[in-house]
Each structure stands twice: as structure tokens, then as C-alpha cells.
Amino acid sequence: MQEDDKKLTEMAREACGRAYVPYSKFHVGAALLLANGEVVTGANQENAAFAGTCAERTAIFYAAARYPGVRFMKLAIAAWQNGDFVEEPVSPCGVCRQAILEYEKIGGKPVEILLCGRNKVYRIEGIRTMLPLSFDEF
Fold first, then answer.
1. Which residues are known to be catalytic?
2. Rounded distance, CA 5 to CA 10, Å?
3. pLDDT, tens digit, 9 for 90 and up, residues 13-44
4. Given a cut of 60, is residue 138 above it in pLDDT?
5. How many CB atoms lie within 10 A of CB 41?
6. Claim: this prediction has a pTM higher than 0.90
7. How far out from the chain centre does Cα 120 lie?
8. Cα 121 to the chain's mean position, in Å?
9. Taking the C-alpha atoms of 41, 108, 97 and 111 in order, what is their torsion angle to the nearest 10 degrees?
10. Helices (H) and strands (E) in the chain, counts
11. 36-63: average pLDDT
12. Gap between the Cα atoms of 42 and 65, Å rounded
């Protein structure tokens, strides 16, 4: 794995520690590399109404608000539960996949996705492979 990918996956793992998950106890962190070199992180946030926000969308929406028009390059996602990182990498939920697709369209290129497990990382070349029948044409 390239050094910049290692750094991004480590930032996603660190972001897990900032999750607010009193109900699921499932900590997810995301790190998003932007074309301007900035990295924005996010962690999942829950509430009693079960209307929380995933780590991916936390990072994506903050990046879009803070750096409008800057293309998303890479997104790393990690998760831990019961004090340890999950063995198998986790993938974004359907709502997050749709959000990633929106910003791929805005940026004009796929966003590379790194799904981080305890001892392995899956590399996905763009969200369309994870969302084959996407809702993107009106």
C-alpha cells in the first residue's frame, strides 16, 4: 500500500474514536482526501430518534461545505466494535453510496474508496461498482 493510502487509512481508524454511538456501539470513521491536499475526517453520530449520520456523510458534507467545488479523490472507511477494529472491512450504506455518487458526478471522476479491516484493505475504484443501478439520471 502506498504511503498516502496508509496515512489516510490511519486517519479513518483514528476518526473511529470520535464516534458518538451510545446505541449501536459500532464506531465508524472516515477520512476523505481532497484534490487540494486537505483531508477531512468524520465519525458516525447517533441519537435517541435513530436519525444519526454515518461517518462517510459526516466527512463528505463537511468537505463540501468547507471546500466547495474541490474534487474528492479518495475515501477511507474503518470500523471498530468491542474495543478492536472489525476483521472484515465494512462498506458504505446505500444512503452514503448515493451521496458519494453525487460528488463523483460533481467532480467528474470516480472517488477511490479504501475499505479498511483489521488486517486488510479493499480498494474500490469508484462507487458505481457498489451501486450498479444508481439513481443518477432524472
1. 56
2. 8
3. 999 999 999 999 999 999 999 999 999 999 99
4. no
5. 21
6. yes
7. 16
8. 13
9. -50
10. 3, 6
11. 95
12. 13
pLDDT in tens, 81-129: 998 999 999 999 999 999 999 999 999 999 999 999 999 999 999 998 8
Q: Are 27 and 16 in contact (CB under 8 A)?
A: yes
DSSP at 22 = T
**Grid cell 447517533 in the structure block, residue:** 46
Element holding 28 (H helix, E strand): strand 26-34
Q: Is residue 42 packed enough to be buried (19+ CB in 10 Å), middle (13-18) or exposed (0-12)?
A: buried
Q: How confident is the model at residue 132 (pLDDT cuts 50, 70, 90)?
A: confident
CB 17 within 8 A of CB 42: no
Write down the mean pLDDT value for the chain. Answer: 94
